[in-house]
Amino acid sequence: MTHKYYDISPRLGPRTLAWPTDPPVVFEPFKSLAAGGSSNVTKLTLGTHAGSHVDAPRHFFDDGRSVDELPLDVLIGKVSVLEVPGDIIDQSAVAAAGFRSGTERVLFKTRNSELWSEAAFRRDFIGIAAPAADFLVRAGIKLVGIDYLSIEAEHGGGAPAHELFLDNGVVILESIDLSAVPAGEYEIFCLPLRLAGLDGAPARVVLRA
Predict the structure, then answer these.
(1) How far is the C-alpha of 204 from the C-alpha of 19, rounded, in Å?
(2) Among 7, 27, 136, 182, whose CB has the most other CB atoms within 10 angstroms?
(3) Of residues 49, 59, 155, 162, which has the active-site annotation?
(4) Are 196 and 133 in contact (CB under 8 A)?
(5) How far apart are CA 159 and CA 111, in angstroms?
(6) pLDDT band at 179, cuts 50/70/90?
């Protein structure tokens, strides 16, 4: 059987879009062959939520599970990519996109994926409304992802979607690029760095059709 693979992690580098209040990604030569070093080694400076990344419960709850404690059977498995054409992911949009009972992992494809071609951060991205987050939690979702820097529908008024998901042990996957991925069923391989005790980590994320 021939599989098709989709790498949905944007390239991570100094030009990668970052949340405005998060640390930027910085690459610094630490030693180099050109400068007489024994090898090339680069120093990385970045936040735990740089590039495609996973939010662990500890992102919002001090006593929550850290990213190195997340179970692999949540991060790897069957996933539904649902396309939402509107300006918000509410409960009716989730239903209209074909969400099925028993789904454990879902990635939302929206017009956000078009924003990866823009150099500047855009605040008018699409997020998940709190009632839709509550619906997904009650439906038994274990992992939820979105194609921009945050799942939150509106910022400045708290983070209800984050809190609903993370307080119920749902892993959040943010900053993925679904522009080349048709809606449908896939296998997901989401492997965040195993950072001890931390709130999140960059992840390389691949879908297999």
Answers:
(1) 18
(2) 136
(3) 59
(4) no
(5) 21
(6) very high
